[in-house]
């Protein structure tokens, strides 16, 4: 405590400010290193405080700091999906994905470590936090599809499956040295959504209804318009299937 | 050892047979319970042998037994994807998915526990084993697409993403009390593949080439034929996009 009190930063910050500062420092460290490669000493050093001070705020040590940092990151990530319910669906989705992918880009190593599992600081709480983000993202998408309360099981499964596909593609993107450029990756993810929505319409009447309404709102020069015009010739070419 | 030797089963089995028996017993237990809910005592009891005997074969205890059982399951799972390279692609994919989904159905709880992470017996080796299955599945699919050696990054990313989507949908299916019926789930996964392949063709020339060749081989009454005929009217209806 004497050491900590002698730090000028310590005197200036309130309890909540100090907690926030330590979480921010931890987030930065966890973003670019696997959790097992970050120690409480690293956090103390980066924050310019003593090791006991970090433990005073986080008596559970690294696991608690990781869980709290993760919850803070999860709140930020959940905000990515908040988007006004106006305009073409593919534009809304593009905005949300741009924010999500910027997050993935910033928190690269931490994002991989978290989602690839097997981490030494992984707990049932970290798993629940990640699942909470997935659930929030799914609810947002169903809201934009106009079926927040009424989505049937197939539409729900479709949205959840697509969210997992986005996570997987993000991990592959990190694994591939951040290739292709983010704007291409985002475009492909939007195309994937439109394709999956359309394919699911073939066997689920509710999805068909939602897809028709979504296509209505699309612009000819938007993502869905470009995709439909590129895909149609390929399908009509397969004349033996028509 | 005296206890074990007194068991009639012990006298009949060779070392390899005994090892195999213990792994099979462990697999059955791990299939329907989370790894944390299976003890070495449970394995010994189910196999009708003593606890020390189990430790003689698996000195690393539960973690080793889990890893070995998982590797055995992984070998079985990898075989699911081996399929002759003849006939329409959607038929080959349907056969592989039927085998994969039968595996998911049989190993339900163990499959969830393994893929949802946070397990107490999860190690870097279990993660590597699961990744090995994913890689083998991706290689098989690229082989069927005729680009085993030559697949570009977008096509590889597409296949890996779809595999993750299949995993995610399988977990959701288990979570939803095994609904919808397996045959519907499999059909939807095949449709998803065709849709993603077609959508990816819009921005990747190699995928476009592969898709054209795949559609050539499809039958009018097969999965791709039915899907194309159901989806086309929906797309052409959106006249403002054409």
Task: Give a written overview of the molecule.
The structure is a homodimer of 242-residue chains. The first copy, chain A, has 242 residues and is mainly α. Chain A folds into two domains: 59 residues, Homeodomain-like (Arc Repressor Mutant, subunit A, Orthogonal Bundle); 158 residues, Tetracycline Repressor, domain 2 (Orthogonal Bundle). Chain A has 13 helices and no strands. In chain A, helix 3 packs across helix 4, helix 7 crosses helix 11 and helix 9 packs across helix 10. The longest helix of chain A has 23 residues. Chain A is elongated, with a radius of gyration of 22 Å. The N and C termini of chain A lie far apart (77 Å). At the A-B interface, helix 9, helix 10, helix 11, helix 12 and helix 13 of A face helix 9, helix 10, helix 11, helix 12 and helix 13 of B.
Key structural traits:
homodimer; Arc Repressor Mutant, subunit A; disordered N terminus; mainly alpha; elongated; about 0% strand
């Amino acid at each position: 405590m004497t050491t900590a009190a002698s730090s000028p930063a310590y005197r200036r910050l309130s309890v909540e400010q100090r907690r926030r500062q330590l979480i921010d420092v931890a987030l930065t460290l966890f973003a670019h290193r696997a959790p097992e490669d970050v120690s409480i000493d690293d956090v103390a050093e980066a924050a310019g405080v003593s090791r006991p001070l970090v433990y005073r705020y986080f008596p559970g040590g690294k696991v608690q700091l990781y869980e709290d940092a993760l919850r803070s990151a999860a709140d930020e990530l959940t905000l990515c999906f908040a988007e006004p319910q106006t305009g073409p669906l593919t534009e809304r989705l593009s905005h949300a994905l741009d924010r999500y992918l910027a997050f993935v880009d910033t928190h690269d190593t931490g994002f991989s470590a978290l989602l690839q599992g097997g981490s030494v600081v992984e707990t049932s709480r970290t798993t629940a936090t990640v699942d909470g983000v997935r659930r929030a993202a799914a609810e947002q998408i169903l809201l934009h599809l106009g079926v927040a309360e009424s989505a049937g099981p197939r539409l729900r499964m479709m949205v959840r499956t697509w969210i997992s596909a986005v996570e997987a593609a993000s991990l592959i993107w990190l694994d591939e040295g951040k290739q292709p450029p983010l704007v291409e990756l985002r475009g492909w993810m939007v195309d994937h959504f439109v394709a999956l929505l359309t394919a699911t319409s073939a066997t689920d009447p509710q999805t068909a209804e939602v897809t028709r309404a979504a296509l209505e709102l699309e612009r000819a020069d938007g993502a869905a318009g470009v995709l439909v015009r590129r895909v149609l010739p390929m399908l009509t070419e397969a004349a033996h299937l028509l």
